[in-house]
Amino acid sequence: MLDAIRESNENSNVGGAFNSNFAGLHALRLGDDYSAGGQGEMQYKVILSFDTSTLPDAATIQSAKLMLAASGLCGMNPFTTHGMCYVDIATGFFGAGPRIQKTDFQAAATAERVAVMGAPPIAGDIISQGSLDGSGLAAIDKTGSTQLRVYFATDDNDNDADDWIGFYSGEAVNPLLRPMLCVTYTE
Fold first, then answer.
1. For the chain, percent helix, then strand, then coil, each to nearest 5?
2. 132-149, pLDDT tens digit by residue?
3. For the segment 146-171, what is each residue's pLDDT rounded down to a tens digit?
4. Cα three-residue angle 117-41-124, rounded to 5 degrees
5. Where are the domains of the chain?
6. pTM for this structure?
7. DSSP per-residue letters across 112-132
8. Which one, out of 66, 104, 107, 154, has a CA that is 20 to 30 A from the CA of 6?
9. Separation between Cα atoms, residue 10 and residue 27, nearest integer Å
């Protein structure tokens, strides 16, 4: 389960709407969306939910890496204009329940900024990846699900234009393009 949530209006830091799937091509948007209707440039954040219950209860997690496949670009590449791309983690889920909600945009995290995503060159199906730090590894739920929130440090670049990078969703036909959380562990 995953989705991108757009801010309700510029500088609100409150989730306002889910973005459309667009046939799975740019379903997960990171960056900003300009509204000519007076709402300003609204930030996109991506929420990813992974079933991590298959990890053995006695597992010692050694490393974990989030991988996202870039699917397209609109406007300026936010990896060059919006600062670092961070990942927050929630043991179980952000907010009030496991279903992704608009309020997950601003919900408290178990640990913040547990990974920095690398900038993918936009040419074909290129992977952006980030390795979780120690607090991120400790927050992986071995008995349920683990949610990750991906976002840029700067919410928008104030150029009155859409500037986002698209990533393939979990509905991508090619399973290698779907978001992945690769976990290495010992028992």
1. 10, 45, 45
2. 999 999 999 999 999 999
3. 999 999 999 999 998 999 998 988 88
4. 40
5. 2-186
6. 0.92
7. EEEEEEPPPPSSSS-EEEEE-
8. 66
9. 21
